[in-house]
Amino acid sequence: MNHTANARSWVEHANGHSDFPLQNLPMGIFSRPGEAKRCGVAIGDAILDLEAVLAAGLFDGAAKAAVEATRGGALNAFFALGRSARVALRERLQALLGEHSEHQSALKPALIPASDCQLHVPAQIGDYTDFYVGIEHAKNVGKLFRPDNPLLPNYKYVPIGYHGRASTIRPSGTDVRRPKGQTLPAGHTEPSFGPCARLDYELELGIWIGQGNDMGQAIPVGDAAEHVAGLCLLNDWSARDIQAWEYQPLGPFLSKSFITTISPWVVTAEALEPFRCAQPARPEGDPQPLSYLLDKRDQAAGAYDIELEVLLLTQRMREQGVAPHRLTLSNTRSMYWTVAQLVAHHSVNGCQLQPGDLFGSGTLSGATPGSFGSLLEITEGGKLPVELASGEVRKFLEDGDEIILRARCTRDGVASIGFGECRGTVIAAN
């Protein structure tokens, strides 16, 4: 896969790039003003227009078929082709963009500054499921409401999830309008209606489904990784006061469905391969996964080692030129279940997964302060305000606040890669 640290590109700004060196090559959908959406690959600070490279006659065989499947402004058909198509395209792109490429002059016109482009949701999302597999987050939140029993009995047996709203998933940079809804004010017996007062972020991993399954046919856990096209960042914006009133007995609804923000680049499973690791051993006394969720290979190398970061930039900080304040530094190793286990569980009842479906991991908090993936945890439900470098304090998000998610993969002897940013700025309710 040519994922060595010393592989270089003739695209000079890609070499040592914090997110998009030659070893990454994530897929996405972009457009330029007045032009239709098309597929591109991030390389350094630029986007390689795949249709332009195709028109130049630089793809053939499986790589050509893969690029042809990206036409139409969505990656669903490309996802449906599976791993072999991704590998063929990746290998050809690394040859074309490598420092010894013979096609530099032909490729340069297809290389567009990313700053000149608008990025879009990379696929038509048929269904969106949000899981709850960050066990530290589950414990932290559980303690707020059930100090003596933070985790319910099913948590360590079942990958908990709920069906989210696909229609309001938006790419990084989309404004987040403060939602309205019913809340039950403290000390009251009847709800009131109005703008959310306890708006929060949730730091999550987004999981893109590649090849799906036929209805009624479960995906075995040992095969499930083959059904994952790649990953992104995901911010599951949450209206905590609306959520507190509505979530029993069926779970989140309007408190979550107003917007979900994702980073626009799909970091492929192949680019992430060097950063796989063993699933952390379960604590002594925890039950082993049931047989349909247990695979030795998945336990040995089915987790990811990805550093996750959340930054907050307020309106005052922008005006003062103050750098964003780091709220969270966490890691995907806090996932109690692997991505393959999520796919296997989702399909075990015969549910059909389709190319372009999206999963959210659930909030990925660490075990210690500074690693909590939501303000609900950081402030203990609003009891402990966060003090910012600007002199401001926050219990929950205010209008003008911008949340920035970032992710990095690092390992000795391997080139580091990133995900790009996932941003959203809160604006006032209508």
Automatic annotation (TrEMBL):
Q: Which amino acids does the record list as binding substrate? A: Y132, R146, Q243, Y247, T363
- Keywords from the UniProt entry: Calcium, Hydrolase, Magnesium, Metal-binding, Phenylalanine catabolism, Tyrosine catabolism
Q: Which domain of life is it from?
A: Bacteria
Q: In which pathway does it act?
A: Amino-acid degradation; L-phenylalanine degradation; acetoacetate and fumarate from L-phenylalanine: step 6/6
Q: Which residues form a coiled coil?
A: none
Gene Ontology molecular-function annotations? fumarylacetoacetase activity; metal ion binding
Q: Which GO terms describe its biological process?
A: homogentisate catabolic process; L-phenylalanine catabolic process; L-tyrosine catabolic process
Question: Mind telling me which InterPro entries this protein's record contains?
Answer: Fumarylacetoacetase, Fumarylacetoacetase-like_C, Fumarylacetoacetase_C_sf, Fumarylacetoacetase_N, Fumarylacetoacetase_N_sf
Pfam families listed in its UniProt record: FAA_hydrolase, FAA_hydrolase_N
Active-site residue numbers: H137
Q: What class of enzyme is it?
A: hydrolase
Q: Where is the Fumarylacetoacetase-like C-terminal domain?
A: 136-426
What is this protein identified as? fumarylacetoacetase
Tell me the organism: Pseudomonas monteilii
Q: What is the lineage of its organism?
A: Bacteria, Pseudomonadati, Pseudomonadota, Gammaproteobacteria, Pseudomonadales
